[in-house]
Specification:
alpha+beta, Glutathione S-transferase Yfyf (Class Pi), Chain A, domain 2, 3 domains, four-stranded mixed sheet, three-stranded antiparallel sheet, 11 helices, 9 strands, 44% helix, globular, Glutathione_S-Trfase_N
Length: 290
């Protein structure tokens, strides 16, 4: 048996991103069940996860329903102590929990003015003073965590941990809205944008349903500041180098083109998530580099 995880739109649901990272970034198997925000899809799906009301919500293999990202993280860390969800060093673990709790409860101005949107990046959003204050607080606690733990990695407390997963959506907000942060804070943001699990989530988010009008803004746009994807594109036909999907092993029904070569997949979503960022997918890259 494995875990089940309810998520919202990948492009927009910041809390869902956190919950999913707890699984993908730490190698814990999970089945995801997605529902579109601002429709009856999510409350309808959550009827099966009583008494949960929000995404993400986890169901354990035994059937226990666990809403809220902090609770999900703690339960997974208890069940999978060797996966590195929290730092093993007591001081680093205490600091990681402290900054995670502040993220869970705070930064409301930033979250309100700059909702997560992984599909665009803007040149400027004219952040008000309250948002600037939140950004200053982020720099304070990020710098404090790194200094106190002596982290020599891109992450807050040594190896990538729950604390970093908690701040992943904040990093995307800084990237999406081109928010003014210190060079050290921007280095941390760029580490998030390059993280393999985040790249997979964003690639899926780019093709996971239509745009949500709630998140639309009229600010001038720029290119996404993260790693530039390889130039793949969806194409018609099934005349491809491979006859089986690199993810499922099922017969090819959809195809993409990349650098003059054609590759096949078992459905449109497999193809489109790959076309969005081929290097995010180890199974595809193994095929591409073979």
């Amino acid at each position: 048996m494995t875990y089940d995880l309810v998520i919202g739109d990948r492009a927009y649901s910041s809390w869902s991103l956190r919950g999913w990272l707890f699984f993908d970034a730490f190698g814990i198997p999970v089945r995801t069940h997605s529902a579109r925000l601002y429709t009856d899809e999510l409350p309808t799906l959550l009827h099966q996860y009583h008494p949960a009301r929000t995404a993400p919500t986890m169901r354990t293999p035994e059937g226990a329903v666990v809403p809220e990202t902090i609770a999900i993280a703690e339960e997974l860390a208890t069940r999978h102590p060797d996966t590195g969800l929290w730092p093993t060093d007591p001081k680093a673990r205490a600091i990681a929990r402290a900054v995670s709790a502040e993220m869970h409860a705070g930064f409301t101005s930033l979250r309100s003015h700059c909702p997560m949107n992984l599909r665009v990046s803007y040149t400027d959003c004219t952040p008000p003073d309250a948002v600037l204050a939140d950004l200053a607080r982020l720099d304070t606690i990020w710098s404090w965590a790194r200094a106190e733990t002596g982290s020599t990695t891109p992450w807050l407390c040594g190896a990538y941990s729950v604390a970093d997963a908690m701040f992943a959506p904040v990093a995307t907000r800084i990237a999406t809205y081109n928010l003014p942060v210190t060079p050290a804070a921007m280095d941390y943001v760029m580490a998030h944008l390059a993280h393999p699990s985040f790249r997979r989530w964003r690639a899926m988010g780019m093709v996971d349903g239509a745009d949500q009008d709630f998140y639309r803004r009229d600010y001038p746009r720029r290119d996404w500041p993260g790693p530039k994807p390889l130039p793949a594109r969806a194409i018609e036909g099934t005349d491809t180098e491979n006859t089986a999907c690199p993810y499922s092993g099922k017969p090819v029904t959809h195809a993409l083109a990349l650098n003059g070569r054609r590759f096949g997949f078992c459905n449109a979503f497999c193809r489109d998530k790959t076309a969005a960022d081929p290097e995010a997918w180890p199974q595809f890259m193994a095929l591409y580099q073979s």
